[in-house]
Amino acid sequence: MTLTSQNSDPEATASSYGLANPDIPIDDPASDSPTDTLLTSILDVSEDDLNYQVSQMGQPPFRARQLWRSLYHEGAQSFDEMTTLAKPFRATLEERYRISPIVPEVELRSADGSTDKILFKLQDGELIETVLMRYGLDGHRRARRTVCISTQAGCALGCTFCATGQQGFRRQLSQGEIVAQVLHMRRIIRSENAELIAAGSAKKDEVTEITNVVFMGMGEPLANYNNTLSSIAVMNHAQGMNIGARHLTVSTVGLVPEIRKLAREPYQLNLAVSLHAPDDESRSRTMPVNKRYPIARLMHACRDYVETTNRRIFFEYVLLDHENDTPEHAKKLADLLKGLMCHVNLIPVNPTEKGPYSRPNDKRSALFREILTKAGIPNTVRQEKGIDINAGCGQLRARALDDAVEAAE
Ligand code: SAH
Ligand code: SF4
After folding, report:
1. I need a surface site. Which of 94, 114, 140, 270 has the fewest CB within 10 A?
2. Which ligand is nearest to the CA of 320?
3. Measuring from atom 5 of ligand 1, which residue has the nearest CA?
4. Residue 36 domain-assigned?
5. 347 lines ligand 1 (CB under 6 A)
6. Nearest atom in ligand 1 to 349's CA
7. Which residue's CA lies nearest to atom 7 of ligand 1?
8. Which ligand 1 atom is at minimum distance from the Cα of 161?
9. What distance in angstroms lies between residue 249's CA and the mean position of ligand 2's atoms?
10. Is the C-beta atom of 274 inside 6 A of ligand 1?
């Protein structure tokens, strides 16, 4: 099983929890949570382990491949519907595993129908948010369906403008909990597409599936490095979800060692770095992480990243009225990024309940932008009107960055 991050007690075994059934794996990651009667999610089983488990069940290797396809390509919600697999095999799977480890608790849709936000409950009762954004054809840009996913319940990094940071850290999400968010949103999109096709409003090759995934929901993806990377492997797998790495964007608060590590991974991902201030004094005021990884170290890692991967970096810059949005800040930012292959995404803050921040007016953000543009730094600003379901979530920032990534490609 791959859920090691959740299994905080290495001594925990099936017998220590009084589990009599020898079929239940002794390293069942759910067994040290209060919900120890629940089965492990099969979405938490790595490809290698799945191959092994299936062979242990006396099945030939191609059965593991069929199972993988059912889970990730077809998106089966129950073993019962995997009719390519023999009934006794399905029954064994049913005894050992559940499929999804997340259950929708609250579902909201914006009035214009473009955006869904879902609050999911995890097996131990933790709550996370996921957002689905639908974009129609826009000039030369193709239609898109983007999912903004969470990688942790809460976040330990405490950025002062962020609703998740204000809640503190709860726990890491597992690979399956990360991937399940995308699978769930894909089901919504597939059923909408099926309706369009049935109504004759679109042909099969005209509908759009999930095209992009942005790691910009709750939590810091690079502080949950292994599960983030293994979820990327699943999303990217050609026989499964098959989402191209260029359509995946990981956003980080700026963890230097992990940025360096990511540069050596074999994926052509997009990396977004949350900069939000151009000097240590202002950055440390809103982002405690800056004391650990100050700007000079962060920028050194970013420059090395661009050199190693030959890919541009996206810098996120949340505009906080009278905090980080003066012309001096803009000039310093331009100097900091000079000569670097990058794109700056300016995001007027989405005010949170507990935060003291507000959005700068249009004139202030336009001036900030103009200074960057004159200095030759590519940038985008999105003055979104606040979607009606936005309350405390990250969909506005995700939308803005997703637009910028597309525009820069
Ligand atoms: N932890 C990662 C990814 C999740 S946050 C990170 O910090 O990058 C995704 C983005 O949303 C980050 O750039 C973050 O700074 C930004 N963000 C957080 N709170 C926001 C708010 N209230 N308004 C606008 N953007 C915000
Ligand atoms: Fe955590 Fe990102 Fe929010 Fe900062 S902005 S508290 S790193 S989720």
Report:
1. 140
2. 1
3. 216
4. no
5. yes
6. 23
7. 253
8. 22
9. 15
10. yes
Catalytic residues: 129, 393
362 Cβ contact list (under 8 Å, min separation 6): 383
Query: Which of 316, 380, 381 best tests ligand 1's pocket when mutated (most atoms within 8 Å of CB)?
Result: 316
Alpha carbon of 252 to ligand 2 centroid (Å): 8
Residue 197 parent element (H or E): helix 175-198
219 domain-assigned: yes
Alpha helix positions (H), 287-349: 289-292, 295-309, 327-337
Query: Which residue, by CA, sits nearest to atom 13 of ligand 1?
Result: 274
Q: How many domains does the chain have?
A: 1
- Tell whether 388 is covered by a domain: yes
3-class DSSP state for residue 241?
coil
Ligand with the closest atom to the CA of 352: 1
CATH of the domain at 287: 3.20.20.70
Nearest atom within ligand 2 for CA of residue 219: 8
The predicted model scores a pTM of 0.89
Residue type, 127: L
According to DSSP, the residues that pair with 400 across neighbouring strands are: none
Within-domain flag for 79: no
Which of 406, 404, 397 shows the shortest CA–CA distance to 216? 397
Whether 30 and 11 have beta carbons less than 8 Å apart is answered as no
**Domain span including residue 272:** 102-408
pLDDT string in tens for the chain (409-residue length): 222 333 333 333 222 222 233 333 333 444 444 444 689 999 999 999 999 999 999 999 999 999 999 999 999 999 999 999 999 999 999 999 999 999 999 999 988 898 999 999 999 999 999 999 998 877 777 889 999 999 999 999 999 999 898 889 999 999 999 999 999 999 999 999 999 999 999 998 889 999 999 999 999 999 999 999 999 999 999 999 999 999 999 999 999 999 999 999 999 999 999 999 999 999 999 999 999 999 999 999 999 999 999 999 999 999 999 999 999 999 999 999 999 999 999 999 988 877 799 999 999 999 999 999 999 999 998 756 445 555 444 544 556 566 667 666 6
